[in-house]
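Reopening: structure tokens for the protoporphyrin IX containing FE complex, inputs below.
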Amino acid sequence: MNKLRRIILWAALALIISSIFLSIYGAFLGAARAKGFFNSIPLSIYWLALACLLVLAIAAFQRLLHVPGLLLTHLGCVLILAGSIWGSDRGHSLQKRLVGLDKIPQGQMIIFEGASEKHVKLEANEQTKELPFSIKLKDFRLEHYEPGYLLIETRGQQRWQLPVEIGAEYSLGPDFGTITVTKRFKNFKITFDGTQRIPIDSPKAGSNPALEVQITDPNGAVTTKYVFERFGGHVHPEDKLLLSYHRIISDFISEIQIIKDGKVLAEESLEVNHPVYFGGYHFYQHAYDDKAGEYTILMVTSDTGLKMVYLGYLMLCVGVFWQFWLRPILRKSSTKE
Amino acid sequence: MEIKYTTQGLLIYVTVGAYLLAFILTAARRTKPGHFLYLLGFATAVLSFGYRWYHVRHVPMQNLFEVFLCLGMIYPVSVFCRHFLRVGGYSADMLIGAIVLIPAGFVFNADPQKLPPALQSWLFVPHVAVYIVSYIFMAKAAFHASLQLVRKAPDTTGDLLGPEQATYQMICVGFPLLTLGLILGSCWGKLAWGDYWGWDPKELWSLASWLVYIGYFHFRYMFGRKYPRINSTWAIAGLTVIIITLLWVNLSKLFTGLHTYAV
Ligand code: HEM
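Re-run output (same inputs, fresh job):
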């Protein structure tokens, strides 16, 4: 038995050290290749061996069973490994073979405003699969930090970043004069009055954020310019200043309905950091149509194994704090008495 | 390298100056004025952090500049270690405080940034804060480990632990925090990106640093204090990997040929 224990301890040390080197190697691969590497068949066997060794150690070492902090720590690691193996792509195909459960491990869906969609493009290959319900995108919105800013650059190295404040005049120094933002457009459009072009803020659907600015050069000559958020605009050789309009996104939100057999089962708003959970899947705001804001891209992940991983996290966490923080305090207070 | 001619910069430089002077005075055995300066440095560090908070209007832990600003408030850890764990090293702490503030003062960009959507999570502050505290403990552990390697006792007064045991003590306190930081990061990733583990280089480096400390515990369990130099080497390796984790995105630019992070 003593020999077995010694073997377990050495094997544990060897596996821990090799895990360190594998992690570092993976860090050099970059996320996408690392994911493939750590999910390959040899590495899957490696993870399984690690989990088995942990179970073996718990069985062979009395102290691991009887010291609650250590038991929770090691058992927590077993659960994390087991849960993540069960929830991996390979785990999903195993489930299909063993228990006939055919869930989508992970993929993406593109949904246009007003449309319903149930197809998911799989992450692992380019195939698509169907969800047992469909998702309708009622509305997609982008929200920005207001009021945004006007970036001004000279052909030299000077630059200014000015908050958009209608009517406020900013001095750009003796060489460039002053600049004032005179109007802000949510949806800039041009209308014609005879031959004269008139810019308006169109109330119709669409979005074309723009600013009207007035530049007064050091001689007092005034020019009016339009600066667009989405388009760079023309820069003439005689222009001394390059202007651009920026707004920083604070949130993107998809208003969705979950529909099955023509019935609306749920209605939710989906934001970054606020995923929606339904029918064994998590839905995330992943990306969006950055040109016209007409569609949203959701990421779909199955929740298989997730509860086990989270339980493992909890046990691991409670275990290490118990072992290293609580136990010494309890011991100290019991020796004092 | 750039000097920050701002109130923020000034506060950082005053803190660094106070810490360095405190270190010199303590090394010259003028412990009382040394301690006073250390406390003064801490007060400026807190002021500096508070100023940044007021300036950017969210808890300033978003970028490396802010994280290093936060690391500079090391004083309470020194006091805690001395009074509750019998671990000394005040003078080293002064030096650690100054060293972490130098990149904040001279290297990192301090332009305030708006929070992108992915950072707007309640998990954000605890995740970073827990990591910051654990890094301070691990830095102290590595300091005591290096003392052990060069066979010098820390500034001894009375009942302080020797360097090998001090290292162990520091890692015992820091490791649960490191574990919690990793787990909170993972939960946050799940909420924000849909994966509790994304195999991203930063995640893998942080996993590696956590594993180094597990290696330390198992090695020390197997051999006790029979090979104190190897125990100490584990602790120093741990901090080395932590530093790489923290600076990876910056470091990786140095050898772009090797990584595919940005692709
Ligand atoms: C490769 C699989 C592992 C095996 C076989 C293993 C086995 C063991 C054994 C046999 C002990 C000694 C228990 C005793 O005091 O009698 C131990 C201690 C410990 N293990 Fe593990 N372990 C493994 C992985 C891990 C992991 C992943 C963690 C992560 C948290 C961990 C954390 C610890 C800690 C903190 C101790 C206490 C060390 C001390 O008392 O100083 N172990 N382990």
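Chain A has three domains: 2-99+305-336, 106-141+251-302, 148-249. The pocket of protoporphyrin IX containing FE is lined by residues A 8-9, 12, 15-16, 50, 53-54, 57, 61, 63-64, 70, 73-74, 77; B 214, 217-218, 220-221 (CB under 6 Å). Marking as resolved unless the reporter disagrees.
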